[in-house]
Amino acid sequence: MIHREVTCPVCGCGCDDITVKVDGGKISDIRGACLVGRAKFIEVSEGGKHRIRKPLMRKNGNVKEVSWDKALDEAAEILTSTKKPLIYGFSENSCEAVKIGVDIAEEIGGFIDSQSSHCHGPTILGEQMVGIPSCTLGMVANYADLIVYWGANPVDSHPRHLSRFSVYPRGLYRPEGRRDRKFIVIDTRKTCTGKIASTFIQVEPNKDFELISALRILVEGGELEESEIAGVPVKEIKKLAKTLTTCEYGVVFVGLGLTHSEGKWNNIDNLLNLVRSVNKHTRLSVVAMRGHYNVAGFNEVLTWRTGYPFSVDFQRGYPRYNPGENSIIDMLAKGEIDAMLSISADPASHFPKKCVQHLAKIPLISIELARTPTTELSDLVIPGVVAGMESPASYYRMDNVPLIAKKFLDPPFSQTSSDEETLKMIYQRILDKGK
Amino acid sequence: MIPEGLQDYRLFLGLDLKVVLDTGSSTRQGKVMRSGGKITEGEEYKRASTVCYMNVGDMSFLGVFNGDNVELSSEEGSVVLSAEASSSPAGVVFVPKGPWINSIISSETSQSGSPRFKGMTISVSASKGKVKSVDELIGRYRKAVRKNEK
Amino acid sequence: MPFKLWGELMNEVTLKVKEVPETGLEVENITPDAFAGMDVKDVSELIIHAGKKKVGISDFFRVSGKTAKTASKQKITIEGSNTLLKRIGEGMSGGEIKVLGDVGYHLGEYMTGGKIHVSGNAGSWIGTCMSGGEIVIEGNAGSYIGASSRGLREGMSGGRILVLNDVGTEIGVGLMDGEIIVEGAASSFVGSYMSGGVIRLSGISGRIGYAMRAGVIEVLDKSFKAPFYFKQTGEEGEFQIFEGDVSFKGRGRIKVLR
């Protein structure tokens, strides 16, 4: 059977134009996905050869299969018997699952966080201070005549981004596609994206902040006395300022190059102020290159429920927010968490050493599709369901547009129909313990 | 091309270079990650994640060729990776994100929640060490816990 | 000692730390305002927070001494403090807190008067949005010193913070009025969004005066180079004067020792 307009549940592009052919409950053909997305479809399609199908428990170095009931009981026990438990992940899962995650975190008086706190958390911190003039990806494809990737390398991180949304698509007001657009990349090294840009600006590492301040001085009508700032000749900075202020509809895609380097959220704060200045001359928008297909969805759901986008602390019975204090990286590095549930995330691969050292010490539950460094450190592993393929999923794309991913396959086990349902079963057991 | 004798001499001198470390995504790594093979296809995950993309001049200075091993060190520790020439500017190296490079990344966030994944100054030097497998890396974390528990 | 203690005119309550649990303790009730007018017995039963649990002060502190009738006459000494003690002195309006040891985050936030003295190191978020009073840290302090809280542009509007050693990042963010003196060096982002007040440092290794609109930052380091978004305007005694943040049309001043 052929399923059209299926979603690829991987990166922030959230491509919903994929076509799959399903034969006998397995994917036999995929059209439209990039090579990274394709790998996820293939994982599910080849009988899911890497999939975890039964819950696993690790005790005294031995791993054994356990029943679903035992696993869910154990999860509830770990989360209710510890003093500072944390629920983490959700970036490649559904908004429905996030809702239950928030319920659980609130009930156990713990913390909830996602990949956003250490990826685009600084972007959100900047947005909270300055505000973000933005637009949808559809508007980019149809209106934009200037595309700037700052600290982002979509060819490696979001392979279909340029062809589907930004540089190559033929839009309503850009019928010539690439020829109607200027394409600029600003980065510390000439990445694959930088190599195909019309203009590549190489900035000194950790000095994007200075480049942004220089641009703003020029855009506000001031002058620069220096010959070079942040490793970029002032002549080039002047050209860039002119390009920004004379475009018709410009879009700056912000990547982790700005949020991870020195300055962190101040880089974004500065950039958003620059965009404000440019908006006195023309229309310039900013879109954050969210890395996972529903990391923005986590921010949305948590904000409806608590008023805060990530790093929420429920210890006092009401939500509190202070990134840097209650964010997962800081808390793990200081050894402040004493139990963790990780869902659709791989902290053991992606966190700095001190955090992983602490993760190895505490009771760790992971809800995962396949074995990862995190499952190898977990005390309890519960098989995950692919949200957006094996269960329907609401998600928010990188431009915060809400979309729905269809279900077109069944999970390779019958004990649960979705991660949302798995979390509901854990939540019910937690509530039962409270009675 | 560095004559073989001179390469050994450089290794003997133990030269090291201070560089700025950039970590991030790569499609090759993305592919194996998404296919669920981080452990079950550990060799491919390792091959995709343990490359240190360097500037050609920097590699020359250290006396390393494509495929030679290099050791990257910071205050957090050190890791052995495989060097590859790239369009990185002098003084900048790029390593795909993941447990190998994260073993030397600082967890310091300047109270922002986001650690120093990009922009750390580290040392690089030629190395005769071996690149660890993903099982060895994770096993090291587990062993440390068991040692402390005794 | 940076200031005189008028011990004989104040009543003192001493809190000796028995132990600090792994969860840490949030003790926003340890202020002269909360203790004044109470019995010492009632002070022992004031609520503090150990993670999820509400506990009494006496569960983790040995309480002794005399309470005063008003906050301005109340002194509190905390012995054996460490970095797991958070929110000491929140919102206090008078009196004194003397901490022997280190403190954690959120010291003296929103305070309007009184004095806090820490003999060891302090964490981050010190004197957030304070409008009066004085905080002295003898050791190092963390980040967000005399700064605004998350989501707020405006920060400290009065009072004084003195740190005898080094500090981290985000010092005096949104400073409107008041004084922040750091005898050691700061890391980065000093005086962002400042619109008044004075910051004095002996050195800085990162960015300064971002989006500064008014106010003064003194850098007592002859080798310091002002950033390009501050223009040199002249000299004043032993200082060179730079004005900026030019990209925000700001008239803040950075004074650098010549």
Helix content percent band of chain B: 25-40%
Helix content of chain A: 25-40%
Structural class of chain A: alpha/beta
Whole-number count of domains of chain A: 2
Give the strand order of the largest sheet of chain A, numbering strands 1, 2, ... along the chain. Answer: 5-4-19-18-17-6-7-15-16
Count of discrete alpha- or pi-helical segments spanning 4 or more residues of chain B: 6
Please supply descriptive tags for the structure shown above.
heterotrimer; A: Rossmann fold; Dimethylsulfoxide Reductase, domain 2; 2 domains; five-stranded parallel sheet; B: alpha/beta; Barwin-like endoglucanases; six-stranded mixed sheet; 29% strand; globular
Sum this structure up briefly.
Chain A is α/β, with parallel strands linked by helices and 435 residues long. Chain A has 18 helices and 21 strands. Chain C has a domain at 121-257.
Any overview of this molecule?
- The complex is a heterotrimer of chains A (435), B (150) and C (258).
- With 435 residues, chain A is an alpha/beta fold.
- Chain A folds into 2 domains: 51-118 and 293-387 and 414-434, Rossmann fold; 121-288, Dimethylsulfoxide Reductase, domain 2 (3-Layer(aba) Sandwich).
- Chain A has 18 helices and 21 strands.
- A 9-stranded mixed sheet of chain A has the order 5-4-19-18-17-6-7-15-16.
- The mean pLDDT of chain A is 95.
- Chain B has a single domain (4-149), classed as Beta Barrel (Barwin-like endoglucanases), CATH 2.40.40.
- Chain B has 150 residues and is of the alpha/beta class.
- The longest helix of chain B is centred in the C-terminal third of the chain and has 16 residues, at 134-149.
- In chain B, α2 (27-34) runs antiparallel to α3.
- Chain C is mostly beta strands and 258 residues long.
- The model of chain C has no long low-confidence stretch (mean pLDDT 94).
- A 13-stranded mixed sheet of chain C has the order 5-1-6-8-9-10-11-13-15-16-19-18-17. Chain C has a two-stranded parallel sheet with strand order 2-7. A two-stranded antiparallel ribbon of chain C has the order 3-4.
- Chain C has a domain at 121-257.
- At the B-C interface, loops of B face loops of C.
